[in-house]
TrEMBL record:
Its main location: membrane. This is Rhomboid family intramembrane serine protease. It comes from the Bacteria. SUPFAM superfamilies: Rhomboid-like. Belongs to the peptidase S54 family. Keywords: Hydrolase, Membrane, Protease, Transmembrane, Transmembrane helix.
Length: 308
């Protein structure tokens, strides 16, 4: 058990590890809820558990949602059913690896968060405007990362449409067809028992497509997400202790050398960082001809951009 906690802790202590961090958050929340539900149900407080879940899952009832706006974020980290989280996490891992490899950790997080937000907004909008769904709005709650995951899935398929997965029983299939099937299933399920979830899928799918298309045009729709995350990182980041510099007038070379070296290093680093226009051209080339068509230099530029 200790090693499990150590693994979770290490996944958050390392940089460039967003995919594992997203999966870890979902799994930890699921595990806590499973244990909490068992304890509360066995103690006769099952009704209280159901009430507590309304503070994590997003409600289609605007009178409830307006007092719990944070649920627009917490719902896409919350699962109750084992198969639900397994299916979501497997798809998040498979397609998230692609997005992370080609676009980097930050844009993977952007897709996940924006897909969840747009999926939740689609859910709220449709359940309060479409008559068929309005009659179900009072008692409808939604949870699960499906909207976020399908945003990553469609985003990967938009970026690398001809990338192939080898599926059990089906063999090699291009991911654009996998994404298309998922979207069609969501459309067909929009009037079924899980209408809210399927509508969130469609919102996430639309976001995934638009995000990559805008990124290829040079616009990153996820910059507000990164701005918010950076704010919280700075808020909780430990401040380094003050450093006192001692300047010896008899050794001017040491002081000058340090400054000069730092300036030179910064200049070299900036020269190594590819421009947005270069990355856009590389992404277009990947979209048209696949990752294998890139030269060694282009792959290195893409890798350096993913570390920004």
């Amino acid at each position: 058990m200790t090693s499990i906690f150590d693994d979770i802790r290490s996944s958050f202590s390392r940089g460039n590890n967003a995919l594992h961090q997203l999966i870890a958050i979902n799994v930890v929340v699921f595990a806590v809820l499973v244990i909490l539900r068992m304890i509360m149900t066995m103690s006769g407080s099952g009704g209280l558990y159901n009430y507590l879940m309304t503070f994590l899952s997003v409600s289609s009832n605007l009178d409830i949602f307006v007092f719990r706006p944070w649920t627009l974020v917490t719902y896409f980290f919350t699962h109750e059913q084992f198969l639900h989280i397994i299916f979501n996490m497997l798809n998040l891992y498979w397609f998230g690896m692609l997005v992370r490899e080609y676009l980097g950790d930050k844009r993977l997080v952007n897709l996940y968060v924006l897909g969840g937000l747009v999926g939740g907004l689609f859910y709220l909008l449709t359940y309060n405007t479409i008559p068929y769904l309005q009659v179900r709005a009072d008692n409808s709650f939604m949870m699960g990362a499906s909207g976020s995951v399908i945003a990553i899935m469609v985003g990967a398929a938009t970026l690398l449409p001809n990338y192939t997965f080898n599926l059990l029983l089906f063999g090699p299939i291009r991911i654009k067809y996998i994404a298309a099937v998922m979207v069609l299933l969501s459309i067909s399920g929009a009037t079924g028992g899980n209408a809210g979830g399927n509508i969130a899928h469609l919102g996430g799918a639309l976001l995934g497509f638009l995000y990559i298309k805008q990124l290829q045009r040079g616009t990153d729709l996820g910059r507000p997400v990164q701005a918010v995350l950076d704010f919280f990182r700075r808020l909780f980041q430990r401040r380094s202790p003050l450093k006192v510099a001692y300047k010896n007038p008899n050794r001017p070379f040491a002081s000058y050398s340090s400054t000069s070296t730092a300036s030179t290093f910064g200049a070299v680093s900036n020269n190594l960082t590819p421009s947005d226009d270069e990355i856009d051209l590389i992404l277009d080339k990947i979209s048209n001809s696949g990752y294998e068509s890139l030269t060694k230099e282009e792959k290195q530029k893409l890798f350096r951009a993913s570390q920004k």
